[in-house]
Amino acid sequence: MAPTGLVGASNPMSYVSVSIPNGPVEEQLLIQRSGDRRWLWTTAAVAAAMFLAGFVGAVGFTPTSTATAQAFLSTPSPVSTANSGAAFRAPQLTGPTGHTVARATLSEVEQQLMQHEVVKTVINEGSQVLASSQVQTAIATVQSHPKDIVIIGAVLVVAAVLWVSRRTIFWKLAQRRGYPEDVDTVINKYCVEQKWMSKGNSSAKFGVVSPLWNRKGRLAIKVSRDLDSWERETSIYKKLWGGGGPFVSLYDAEPNFDGRGANMLIQDYGEMDLLDYINENGPLSMRDIRRFGRRALKTLKKLHGMGLVWCDCKPENFVLVNGTLKAIDLETVSRVGEDIPGYTAETAPPELAEWEKPPRATEALAARKSYDMWSLGMLLLHMYLGVSYWKSNSAQTIVRAMRADGFEIDLSDVDDPLLRNLLKSLLHNNPNRRPNAALAGAHPFFLVP
Q1: How far is CA 443 from the centre of its chain?
Q2: Are 45 and 156 in contact, with CB atoms under 8 Å apart?
Q3: HEC string for 86-120
């Protein structure tokens, strides 16, 4: 069964098994043995630090024996007799009635005690004797328990060996826990449950993986050889603190993980993308349109609040993660005013068609927040109609239609007055007349429970 919830083209197509260019998947998705030596040295350093910490702990926290304490108390002070005869006067500690007034004068007594040379000498020498006795007691304890030291060392060595070979061990355990027989590849610490898939014209390849330590934890893996696109998407996730909220979470990212130019992202696994959900259920209910529309608005509010434009808000770029709609594929996110890296004709605004007119402008189309608001309107209309407004028309046909004089999106099939009013504002040909994400979220359509 092919995985769902993965980005694809605008038209639904079946997933097909493919191989990444420059070699078959089986040759590329091997355990990264190049990192084993690094892990070995890291483990050895950790084991040495643990052993040293244990020894220091024994030295620092082993209590002195009763005999050592008694010997210390019975040791005569080396203070000279001349100094020992020096006296100091304590303040008067009795009140008018003869009662002791210790609390009022305790600090004065302490100050005189600490200023007296005899007391200072006794405290300093006593501290040195106590510290020396602790070290001797700790050494004696270690010498009297050689077997314990050997056992601790053996445990650390075994732990180091297990850590270095953890991938092989996890993989063997994974095979016993019911992984498919045809799964024979491991990427770092992930097992590939389903081989690379491709959908439509997407340049990236997708699959379903499971962490080797958690058989039930399914994640989606995205692999692309476009390093610029991969860097753009990972940088956006960094700005979003790893995603979460209205976005899928990013768990892992590694460039050139196979040594041949393949870059990977490990993200939340979506049971189904919004396009597949619409195709399976037909026109969505008003409740679902509001529910999914609010989630899409939340995504745009987050990006627009950071001065970013998605430029690719469409049903394929939303997936259901445990029933919650989340956004994926952020490689097209751009700063306001930057050149858009690409577009999808089905959700692109009319200003794109104007830009496409021959002769095309020498400058690329700049990203504007109004671009996303048009795409949101097309998304809501798609959910209401159950199919794309443009049906299966090609990108050239769509651009040509939007360039026609008097072009407007036909909303005659939208019966709900609130939705129709919202769509009219979102799908206005003049980008300056479209509401921003905050105003669209305050529209009466979204205020209905």
Answers
A1: 33
A2: no
A3: CCCCCCCCECCCCCECHHHHHHHHHHHHHHCHHHH
**20 and 262 Cβ atoms separated by less than 8 Å:** yes
Note whether 11 and 273 are within 8 A (CB).
no
- Displacement of CA 431 from its chain's centroid (Å): 35
CB 315, CB 357: distance < 8 Å:
no
Give the residue from 390, 381, 389 showing the smallest Cα distance to 420: 381
Q: What dihedral angle (degrees, nearest 10) is formed by the CA atoms of 419, 423, 424, 427?
A: 180
The sheet with strand 318-321 has its strands ordered as 272-273, 318-321, 324-327
Quote the tokens at residue 225: 């050889």
Interval 305-323: pLDDT, tens: 999 999 999 999 999 999 9
With a CB cutoff of 8 Å and minimum separation 6, the contacts of 299 are 246, 247, 310, 313, 327
Helix, strand, coil percentages in the chain from 3-state DSSP, rounded to 5:
50, 15, 40
* 160 vs 170: CA distance, rounded Å: 15
437, exposed or middle or buried, with CB in 10 Å at 0-12, 13-18, 19+? buried
SS3 85: coil
Q: How far is CA 90 from the centre of its chain?
A: 66
Beta carbons within 8 Å of 153's beta carbon, 6+ residues apart = 51
Q: Which residues contact 336 (CB under 8 A, 6 or more apart)?
A: 307, 308, 309, 367, 368, 369
Alpha-carbon distance of 260 to 21, in angstroms, equals 9
Residues 313 and 378: their CA atoms lie apart, in Å, by: 9
Taking the CA atoms of the chain, what radius of gyration do you get in angstroms? Answer: 36
Q: Please, are residues 94 and 100 in contact by the beta-carbon 8 Å criterion?
A: yes
Q: Do 314 and 371 contact (CB within 8 A), yes or no?
A: no
Distance CA 185, CA 264 (A): 15
- Please report the pLDDT score of residue 190 as a whole number: 77
- Residue 322: strand, helix, or coil: coil
Peptide bond into 359 cis (omega under 30): yes
Structure tokens given for 92: 């008067």
Give the mean pLDDT of 354-382.
Answer: 82
Q: Is 280 helix (H, G, I), strand (E, B) or coil?
A: helix
Terminal CA-to-CA distance of the chain, rounded, Å? 37
Q: What is the mean pLDDT of the chain?
A: 74
Structure confidence by residue, pLDDT tens digits, 113-152: 556 665 556 566 666 665 666 667 767 776 677 777 778 8
